[in-house]
Amino acid sequence: MQAAPPLIHWTEQGTDHAVRWHSEAGMPPPKRVAVADDTMNADTAYRLACEGTALLWRGDFQNARQLLQALARRADHKHGKGKKKPAKVAASPTEAFHLHRQAQSQRARTLAMLLIPFEPGYTIPLRRAPDVKLACNEAYGRGDDAFVISLRELLGLVGAHEWRKAGVAIPALGARIHPHYGVFSPVRGEYVQLVADTPLPKNTKVAFDIGAGTGVLSAVLARRGVPQVIATDMDRRALSCARENIARLGLDEQVQLLEADMFPPGRAPLVVCNPPWVPARPSSSIEHAVYDPESRMLKAFLAGLKDHLSEGGEGWLILSDLAEHLGLRPREHLLEWIAQAGLVVLGRHDVRPVHPKATDADDPLHAARAAEVTSLWRLGAA
């Protein structure tokens, strides 16, 4: 039996209310809720938010957006962003990472305290509210009931809708990939280019793509001439996204999508996987593409790879070494897991990231990001 959705409770003009609470990050409904409008100033709103009191907005929607920006400026100032010296100097890259994640979490909790009401049919009952019905239907499906959501999450949903419409240019495809809400966008093109440039094993008639996401790597392999690509993912949003992208690119006949945990049945001469790179706990659904607690997916891929490779086949592991520079996963551990799985390293192709954070000296993890290398490890059976 499916659990009843969580409810958010508040009192307004002497009347008690309770409606469905929605949080993609899995945050519980706030226990304290105050009704707020255009008369509330940013300092009062920030104080209440820091104390754990959520603000259910009843004023002008655009004013709520401006208030959220003001709250963000106060949160950034509190956590040292923009100052010459941080509030606390980390003793190591690992501590810097944990302090950074802690600050991110605190900031997210504070900014999530500004709430927006929805009426059935994804209507926002506020002045100057935008029409977000299409974006909400894409992300959540049909909406027949009232609910409350944080403004920050709503703006993220609207932003994802715009990303989906515009798409992301993929030079390796000569086309665009359109990410859906909750599916990690392939904005780091260097790892895609590695898959496009690495020579295919001989007689690659079938390839497995483990963790398909948007379907970008399956599309690259199909465009390279692999007759059959079988892609798996456990996330239904990802499968829907990949299916739409594959269809748009006209690759339906070559790419098959399966809802599966890791490997499809059988063996293939090429098995590709781009697991999350950082062994830490994700704080939202989309962060599962970046954070992998205890390197679970990485370990599962290595442990099962040998049993799914054809004779003479290759497994391509696409992995950043950012975790190594942060002190979260030594290179020795990766090499041990490869050996324990009965695998050998056939070769490795490296590339340096070109995303903006790699050159942002103000980023608290700049030293690690500046040293980061993304690699395609070619693995074979020992």
Structure write-up:
The protein has 382 residues and is an alpha/beta fold. The protein has two domains: 7-163, no CATH class; 167-381, 3-Layer(aba) Sandwich (Rossmann fold), CATH 3.40.50.150. 34% of the residues lie in helices and 23% in strands. The chain has helices spanning 42-50, 61-78, 93-111, 133-140, 151-166, 189-197, 216-223, 236-248, 296-305, 322-325, 331-340, 366-371, and strands spanning 7-12, 15-21, 32-36, 53-57, 114-118, 147-150, 168-170, 175-177, 206-210, 228-233, 255-259, 268-273, 309-320, 343-351, 374-381. A seven-stranded mixed beta sheet has the order 11-10-9-12-13-15-14, sandwiched between helices. The model is unreliable at 82-86 (pLDDT under 50). One of its GO terms (biological process) is methylation. Residues 177-319 form the Methyltransferase small domain. One of its GO terms (molecular function) is protein-glutamine N-methyltransferase activity. InterPro entries: DNA_methylase_N6_adenine_CS (IPR002052), N5-glutamine_MTase (IPR050320), SAM-dependent_MTases_sf (IPR029063), Small_mtfrase_dom (IPR007848).
Total helical segments: 12
Largest sheet features: 7 strands, mixed
Taking the alpha carbons of the first and last residues, their distance comes to 46 Å
In percent terms, what proportion of residues is strand?
A: 15-25%
User: Which strands sit side by side, in order, in the main sheet?
Assistant: 11-10-9-12-13-15-14
- The SS-based structural class is alpha/beta
Low-confidence stretches: 82-86
Give the averaged pLDDT, no decimals: 92
Helix and strand sequence: EEEHEHHEHEHEEHEHEHEEHEHHEHE
Q: Report the CATH C-level class of the largest domain.
A: Alpha Beta
Helix percentage: 25-40%
Our Rg estimate from Cα atoms comes to: 23 Å
Tell me the CATH superfamily of the largest domain: Vaccinia Virus protein VP39
GO molecular function, one term: nucleic acid binding
Pfam families: MTS
Keywords: Methyltransferase, S-adenosyl-L-methionine, Transferase
Protein name: Methylase of polypeptide subunit release factors
